């Protein structure tokens, strides 16, 4: 009888300790991206991590891994599917291989500017494409981040399409990024983001293309003398989480979603403002910033936007144009 009482008491104690452990368990999410710690994307991801921890009373911890520390862009996309990472920033061009139509916003000259981008972000079209991506992958789009208009940097002025003939230009390792350089006769060279600075410095490539804020925080202006305002692509980033990660946070999913959407808005506002301010800043650094007539570049690309090789439908194209 005495033994039974002791056993019962021990069992009750273990149960209480187990319940307490469950009550105070922390779910950890790995947020991976390829951007530097000084970029708005990383700073706002860190802000989101702090906010999520605070609003969930520590039940959800989000650890942010910047600068390709958990893999390059292709690898972190793959990592979502195998549970190596839980949340990522990635470009629509990189998810094209999983669900093509969602890449439409990254195609050359298809977005008219920041206001058009905002309309797309809030549109039924974006919601439909996000759901299509979810059905194809089991990963969910939680936010759209403004990345900016891409411009070509080089060591010579680029003012007309003919100036790009034969130019060895680094592009991200995604199919749609080949359209613009191919249309103007350049020699596109896919390369990981982390390798670009050294490749420019050593002359492995002659040029690269990125938005002004990226050119600044990656310091490409240190190894390129000209910024040519081609504005050939208006880029976005997607914030994506796996279904598994969202299921693991349980009732805190709504908090995670809301905070990451707010982080997306903060980054978007900062990048848009930076685009406005940076032309003067670059010129103050002694960099030649060339104004470019976009019309000839756009004319070279336009026939390809409704050709056989695009992953979106003509209906998608028309609906985006009408926003």
TrEMBL record:
Q: Which Gene3D superfamilies match?
A: Bacterial extracellular solute-binding protein, family 7
List the subcellular locations.
Periplasm
Identify the domain of life.
Bacteria
- A Pfam family reported for this protein in Swiss-Prot or TrEMBL: DctP
One GO cellular component term of this record is: outer membrane-bounded periplasmic space
Q: Which InterPro entries match?
A: DctP_fam (IPR018389), TRAP_DctP (IPR004682), TRAP_DctP_sf (IPR038404)
Residues in the signal sequence: 1-25
Key words, A-Z? Periplasm, Signal, Transport
Q: Which family does it belong to?
A: Belongs to the bacterial solute-binding protein 7 family.
What protein is this chain from?
ABC transporter substrate-binding protein
Provide the species name.
Falsihalocynthiibacter arcticus
